[in-house]
Amino acid sequence: MKILLILTGGTIACKVDNHRIDVSEETASDILIRYQTLYPCTDITFNVVQPLQTLSENHTSVTYNRLIDFLYQYDFHSYDGVIMTHGSDTLSYTSALIGMLFGHLPIPFMITASDYPLSEENSNGISNFYACVRWIEERLCNGVFTVYGKKDFPNIYLATRVCEANPITDEFSAFADGMVCQFHYHKISYINNELVSLLKNRPNDIICFSKPPVIKNDVLLIKTYPNQNFDCYALENVSAVLIYLYHSGTACTVGNSKNICRFMEKCWKKQIPVYTASHKPKQDRYVTSIETDRYTTFKLYGISMECAYSKLLLALNQDEYISEKILGSDIFFENCLL
Description:
The two termini are 35 Å apart. The protein has helices at 30-38, 61-71, 91-102, 125-138, 193-200, 260-269, 287-293, 305-315, 323-327; strands spanning 2-7, 14-17, 20-23, 45-49, 81-85, 108-112, 143-150, 153-158, 162-163, 173-174, 179-184, 187-191, 219-223, 240-244, 274-279, 298-301.
């Protein structure tokens, strides 16, 4: 069995020096060394590559473009699976991006991270990595998956439905039942058979980007919250605005600086399109939701905030499809309502 191991940095590649945690070339490939020491196996060949070495909070369009260009160089069909190590802070965003770019692959593409450097005894890095290898070995279904959980209890999520980690527990969550599998001390304890069935019977007409998108158009992501002052947003060098509304698809529509419609109108005057997410089809709708519709360029349904942002970023930074085609399609099960 042949696995492509892609190292990009993050805590899983960090060392601690005088209470300072940072990526290190010395520890970049430690994950494979430690794994093979604990689980020696002669029938798995790892091809190790390292396009990046950074903390994931430092990801920008520069690092994303470098990573995407690098991934498009590979013929993944010559591998049985791919494992990409990553930092946990932006894991859900990169997962969404990679999920939509490579969800069509006929092999498992696993993305994983670690809560502590591997030198720490309570690090979950090795158990997460072990789950990646096991999933590739089992070959239950193909696609892009995010692997992360407590030590010895890794979870496998659909890459386009994993949500940012809780800042206290450091645990990730699944959007709309997006957990595919759970491990319990190296044994599979749960399989989401419904999701696995969907993955095995994917349609053939999904959107596939034949060339790498180049991220140069910036998207301003805004999450609604009470007493939000929309005058704080300068709208400089913004190609589009994405507003992730409350769960009911609503936002404040009264007052001046607090009125989202007033802000959206300002965007239109600057010729900045406004996209909204957190929608679900309903016959009866709140009046505030109806008001925001008047200024919305496109509404994204049944999608997480991270994936909505990543999807719009892709839509605006490629030239193979019109943006509405991408936004209205279900590329890799990111739209839980379709």
